[in-house]
Amino acid sequence: MAIIQFENVGLRYGLGPEVLRDISFDIPDHSFQFLTGPSGAGKTSLLKLLFLSLKPSRGLIRIFNRDPATFTKDELLDIRRKIGIVFQEFRLLDHLTTFENVALPLRIAGLDEATYKADVRELLEWVGLGQRMNVFPPILSGGEKQRAAIARALIAQPKLLLADEPTGNVDPPLARRLLRLFQELHRSGTSVVIATHDINLMDQFNARRLVLEEGRLIVYD
User: Fold this and answer.
1) Cα-atom radius of gyration of the chain, to the nearest Å?
2) Would you say residue 220 has pLDDT above 80?
3) 127: Cα separation from own chain's centroid
4) Which residues of 122-155 are buried (b: 16+ CB within 10 A; e: fewer)?
5) Nearby residues of 214 by Cβ (< 8 Å), 6 or more positions away
6) How far, in Å, CA of 125 to CA of 95, rounded?
7) Which of 212, 155, 189, 175 has the alpha carbon at shortest distance from 34?
8) Residue/partner pairs of 90-93 with CB below 8 Å, 24 or more apart
9) What's residue 221's pLDDT?
10) Torsion angle of alpha carbons 143, 146, 148, 154, nearest 10°?
11) In the predicted model, is pLDDT for residue 212 greater than 80?
12) What average pLDDT does the segment 37-50 reach?
């Protein structure tokens, strides 16, 4: 079963040319794939369509077997809670500690801290931030902010994880470790889409590749 389907999707910003053209593919349930292609090919735009933060200029998108155009505001918020996303710019809140940033999706969902405190601490230890959980983001390095953003996206065990260059600010050993963490999440039932330029990293994992070239998509299963 596909959790997301694109049919002849196009995207343009304003009156400009299409940055994505005739995109047709699906994201199967419990799947793992890389999204790759040269800079400017449209990877970030495609991730934003997957996250429903952009609407296509044409074509059809279905998510969890529904057309997002039919969602009420509350339904859209509920769907987005099922999607974890790691942005290149991290989007951590400077007035919250590392722990509080990572726990934010659970707090927004209305859970009591006592029910998730141990899980947040364990995940922060796993990504190497166990000693930084009470530090505020302005004190963190770029790599530490990246890891905090990844932990925040993972903590709620989303049905779909989208990651935009999630290993771009970490060294190769930690990059491999983070990819293994994504694989563990995948094995637990999450579908994963990782946008990356790192061919060497992709070669270490047997996964489907979605390749964008000049706004068009080629799928290699």
Assistant:
1) 17
2) no
3) 16
4) ebbebbbbeebbeebbeebeeebbbbbbbbbbbb
5) 41
6) 21
7) 212
8) 90/137, 90/145, 90/146, 90/148, 90/149, 91/149, 92/137, 92/140, 92/145, 92/148, 92/149, 92/152, 93/137
9) 65
10) -140
11) yes
12) 89
Question: 82-114, pLDDT tens digit by residue?
Answer: 898 888 788 899 999 999 999 999 998 888 999
- Residue 116's Cβ-side half-sphere holds a number of Cα atoms within 13 Å equal to 22
Q: Between 175 and 65, whose confidence is greater?
A: 65
What is the residue-averaged pLDDT of the chain?
Answer: 89
Distant-in-sequence, close-in-space partners of 75: CB < 8 Å, separation ≥ 6:
none
Backbone angles phi, psi at 76, to 5 degrees: -65, -45
d(Cα 47, Cα 65) in Å, to the nearest integer? 18
Q: Kindly report, residue by residue over 16-32, the tens digit of the pLDDT.
A: 899 999 999 999 999 99
Could you tell me if residue 209 is left (phi over 0), alpha (psi between -120 and 50 degrees) or otherwise beta?
beta
Token pair 């999706």: residue: 105
Question: Which of 58-62, 77-81, 163-167 holds the top average pLDDT?
Answer: 58-62
The residues facing 192 across adjacent strands are 32, 161
CA distance 103 to 156: 9
Tokens describing residue 47: 């991730």
